[in-house]
Amino acid sequence: MSVIYDYFHRAATRFPDKLALVDAEDTYTYAQLLAEIETLACKIIDKSGQQRPRVALITDNQKDNICTCLAIAKLNGCCIPMNGQLLPAQLIRACQAVDANILAGSAGAIQKTAQAKHAIATIDLSAVDLSAVSQNNAEISQGNNRVSAELDARIASWQGAQDFLITLSSGSTGAPKPIMISQQVKLERAKQSWELYHLTERDVSLCASPFFHSLGQRLTFVPLLLGCTMVHLGKFTPSQWLNLVEQYQVSFVISVSSHLYALKKQLIANAKQLTSLNTIVTSSAPIDAKFKAQVFNAIGCDFHEIYGATEIAVATNLSPAQASAKYQTVGSACNNIDLVILDDEYKEVTKDTVGEIAVRTPLAFSGYYQQQVLTQQSFHKEYFLTGDLGEKDADGFLSYVGRKKDIIISGGINIYPKDIESVLLQHSAIHEIAVIGVEDTLLGEVIVAICIAEPNTIESKKIESELRKLANKQLAAFQRPLKYFFPDELPLTATGKVSKLMLREQYSKLNDGWTDSLRMMLYGGSADD
């Protein structure tokens, strides 16, 4: 049994003519989506032969993401959403790392595999014509029975697989970190959101995150498995966000913090447009206490802040009832979740002491695909080691301090500095390099490369130009540094290691509006508005 597909099928049976998806100018009912899911299930199984389908999914079209993923769920296959910005070589490495045997996506994504001369079965999703698929419920049911009759035994043998979804936490030049999540856990995560935010089929949800991102997946399954309407915003702008909320009477949103900061002025100035909103949730990075207080006071709807990770889903929740007293925290542990703070020897620390956040949850991931050692290293007993630093107060509320792991989160995307450093070190004039994330009000963090050049080499401006060309050639757009600096040396810790903490403190002070031009181009405002 496919629990994800079954829940969607149940919603489509109850509400066949209900608006399920709004994506730009296109709208789709539940019956229409279900019809295409059945068609795609046939295409996928034909391509996979006797093998369990392991589908790399690369498209910006939300209808294609939804239908392909649910078709894979129906077949008890494995869906691996990928970032379309990956370069051909990166895409192939990612496919190989997760043993993908089918690539489904846009014509451009398929062309990338051809450029890299990688042999893999492909499905061009742009060639699937939804208008040619019957919308009659009886025919939908007949198609469903046809697929089941032919393949029931084989599909049943794949039931219970722990890797329904694999989310790649890095669009990396090295080995990606493939996070496996089973269908049952994905369903339970959706149920957690239904309970936390009191959602029903009458809600309308807005998603402004890409499907390859775990938040984009959450904002797909949460509404569609419940029978809600999902409104998708492919390219975020504050004005478009506000227009969609008003036009479709959106009641529920989860926004990454960078989107909320971009919306800051508009949220307060356009409160009348937001009367349909029942719940706003912020995710991906904590927002500062001052801004949080302004939003709490201005919007007039429930405002939640959460802490979590792809591996553990939502671990804490700060509800409106707790906000006035605990607004400097990210909330307390959700039901059935145990959160502790550990020192470097994995001993639990006392209250108000900073340590690593560790979480025990029934919503945990299944592990990192084919990386058993890494999976084991990520746990202490039953607790997932998040790599984040935090502290709990006497009431059990968590304050997020920072990241222990060397990772950058820019625009809600996890980026690994090591991947960038290994590319830039290919330049013959670079002796040493440290890539860091510098705090930024637009993107959360921006990527900065601090480069130590060999003595008596060419001038730094020419080196920077060559490094940018190297990055453009070998790194995806979201991995490329915004700024390059060329000091004489890098600061070291007492043990002789490069201190990225000191570098972040030093270079964060220099960010006097590095992304202001991008903000103006996208949103038409400054950070101070």
TrEMBL record:
Entry keyword annotation includes Ligase: yes
Alphabetic keyword roster: Ligase
Signal peptide, first to last residue: none
SUPFAM superfamilies: Acetyl-CoA synthetase-like
Domain AMP-binding enzyme C-terminal as annotated: residue spans: 420-497
Any one Gene Ontology molecular-function term assigned to this protein's record: medium-chain fatty acid-CoA ligase activity
Domain AMP-dependent synthetase/ligase: 8-369
UniProt superkingdom: Bacteria
GO terms of biological process kind: fatty acid metabolic process
Alphabetical list of CDD domains matching this protein: AFD_class_I
Protein family according to the UniProt entry: Belongs to the ATP-dependent AMP-binding enzyme family.
The name this protein goes by in its record: Long-chain fatty acid--CoA ligase
Biological source species: Shewanella maritima
